[in-house]
């Protein structure tokens, strides 16, 4: 058993509850960690026996293009999409951060973490 992670993936997207957020957009950061059995990949040294970083990035990039109101929804879409591509993985943990959220005060970012 092991983990694979991509950290600090940044995207500009149009998510948010407020119409203004969906119009002007914002910066988002995604962190993903996957727990799975890497023993076959460790033995074979073959990319097909593991989780491909490039695939993960493409999955996340695609999800980030879908407008959503909630960070929780974005995280769930990422988890579902990763599990569809890699059904044998044990656990997916996704953190979604929104920079400078519109909360009426100073906040560098809002962040949610979802495990699926």
UniProtKB/TrEMBL annotation:
Task: Give an example GO biological process.
Answer: folic acid biosynthetic process
Task: Extract the signal peptide range.
Answer: none
GO MF, any single term: dihydroneopterin aldolase activity
Q: Does the keyword Chaperone apply?
A: no
For this protein, the Enzyme Commission number is: 4.1.2.25
Q: Which UniProt keywords apply?
A: Folate biosynthesis, Lyase
User: What range(s) does the Dihydroneopterin aldolase/epimerase domain occupy?
Assistant: 4-116
Q: Which GO terms describe its cellular component?
A: cytoplasm
- Keyword Ribonucleoprotein among record annotations: no
What does the record give as the reaction this protein catalyses? 7,8-dihydroneopterin = 6-hydroxymethyl-7,8-dihydropterin + glycolaldehyde
Pathway-wise, it operates in:
Cofactor biosynthesis; tetrahydrofolate biosynthesis; 2-amino-4-hydroxy-6-hydroxymethyl-7,8-dihydropteridine diphosphate from 7,8-dihydroneopterin triphosphate: step 3/4
Q: Which domain of life is it from?
A: Bacteria
Q: Quote the PANTHER family the UniProt record gives.
A: DIHYDRONEOPTERIN ALDOLASE 1-RELATED
Function as written in the Swiss-Prot or TrEMBL entry: Catalyzes the conversion of 7,8-dihydroneopterin to 6-hydroxymethyl-7,8-dihydropterin.
The family line of this record is: Belongs to the DHNA family.
- Kindly provide the name given to this protein in its UniProt entry: 7,8-dihydroneopterin aldolase
Q: Which organism is it from?
A: Arcicella aurantiaca
Source taxonomy: Bacteria, Pseudomonadati, Bacteroidota, Cytophagia, Cytophagales
